[in-house]
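ping. complex inputs:
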Amino acid sequence: MDFDSFKNEFLIACDFIEEPIIEESTRFDQIADFDSLAMLGVIVLLETKFSKQISGEAVMKLETVKALYEFATK
Amino acid sequence: MTIATLEKVAVRGIVTVVPEARIDNFDVSEENLRTRQRLIKNIGIRYRHICRNGMIFSDLAQKSVELLLEGLKWQKDSIDALILVTQSPEYLIPATSVILQDRIGLSTNTSAFDINLGCSGYTYGLFTCASMIGEKRFRRVIVIVGDQSASDGSPDNGREVLFGDACSATALEFDNEAPDMFFEGNSDGSGSEAIIVPHGGKRNPFNESSLKPMLWEDGVERNPLDVRLDGPAIMNFSIKRAPESILNVLKNSNKTIEDIDYFVMHQANKMINDTIKFKVGGNADQWPLSLEEYGNTSSTSIPMTITGNLSEKASTQKVKWLTCGFGIGLSWGTLYFETDKIYCPKPFKIK
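pong. complex structure:
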């Protein structure tokens, strides 16, 4: 999966009310609506599409959407 | 891991009760509506019943047993044991089940005790009670499960829209011809803080700080007598452990996904339940949800789904159920059982 496809999956998983512009370098703490529900969506995305388990703290430690993409696809 | 086989025990009836009063999760101010719509869409919960005007959980418990005995036409003195699975006791001590023995009018020859479990409680409750039944053991046992968890007006969005109050009573009876039940139980106390009420027990006794709102690390203000949920930790636990346990029980009971009529899960939230379904397999009809109408009703959510969604099927047909409860503890249990035309009315709403 390339980054653009992952970005689309990420946006669907987070189900933001106002869809933010996501770049590779976008940090989770820069996304205003990256709340607990979005976090649950990310956890489900990684489990169902990539068979990867990740905690909420680990997602935040990855810091950027690109790092999450690399974790998911490595 | 041992899978327990329980022989010669039949489920005769399941009754579920909820308070008549209910909350519509869409009932928020216009400015909060879009946020709430997003939340409801993802967790799948629209309505939650709630105890009002002095009603408490044990009132639901009493009514559920009375309705069950009435529906089955069982005499009160025929009940050997009354077991209550709850984390909403009437008092810390004595056990609420013993109080209910008297209030319901059961014989003093009735064994009664409480089990302190939440979302895994239906599977553990049925397993415990079925274990008490046998040719030289008890003949009729009632297991009550449920909690009073609904909140209204809490600033904690993590739980404010989730929980509903409910209770269920299930009747078990010795039966030489009953098909086997299969049970697997699991525990992981390292996750005990994932769902916790920090104050009020012996570790942190109630004190003046117990009622003071404080800001927790998840950014939510709550007091230490409120239940605290770590959403991501619960999500990770549920979508890993529940599918593992379900597949393990299927394998060890020599059953396939196609053999099961219904996989009735604890109704946690739609994201968790959909992910468990995705990982186990089967078709959508095998995986009923009662979340929209009742919310997460703790240990009642399995019998709530059976009575709320499948009352007619259970009343008129043989049904093979694979149930899995998972949550606070952390605790999880999976139980396979069959029913044959049982007393299973739709949920009762009581005032």
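Chain B has one domain: 1-194+230-351.
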